[in-house]
Fold these 2 entries.
Entry 1:
Amino acid sequence: QVQLVESGGGLVQAGESLRLSCAASGSGFSLYAMGWYRQAPGKEREMVATITTGGTTNYAGSVKGRFTISRDNAKNTVYLQMNSLKPEDTAVYYCKSPASLWGQGTQVTVSS
């Protein structure tokens, strides 16, 4: 089973950027598609971005053009570059693979 630890969240102002990291331990990281998800207070968890083992990406419409997901299989890490952040991006962000459980997530707060 793959264990994931998210980091890189914080408090920023609207228009600023953050880069989230998700470090995986255990074997088989490169064998799995990876995804970033988020959950805002009082809302359902939603998909933000996914990346396949071959590097094909998919984004939620609300973040397309602002967020970029990438992975470094040599470092067992997946990233989420978030630019032009908006207050509605405020949420706890999680990474996930089919072989992992949900982690603790990392809080992103965007002030207006």
Note: The chain is about 0% helix and 50% strand.
Entry 2:
Amino acid sequence: QVQLVESGGGLVQAGGSLRLSCAASGRTFSTSAMGWFRQAPGKEREFVAVIRWSTSSTDYADSLKGRFTISSDNAKTTVYLQMNSLKPEDTAVYYCAASRTNYIVTASFRQPSAYDYWGQGTQVTVSS
């Protein structure tokens, strides 16, 4: 089992920045990637970013490239999401997730079904 705990959410004005953290514990060596998703009220959970351990590669939702950056510590137990130039439409609960499967195609990690473990989420609210 892997436990994930997000932190760093809060209220920020449009144009501001936030850095989310996701601390992983447990059998972290069994994971192949960690990602971030978000879910706004009344909407489906959507992919934000992923980082893969085997290739150290990253992938982002097309609409977020250039504003959001995913990174990790050397131990691969904490994943960060740096969010810049925030917009009111970025308001959502942000979830951290971990996958045990090393999918060949990185785009496979864009689906929530690719992940085995989820955190409880952290609220991000961007005011206009």
Note: The chain has no helices and eleven strands.
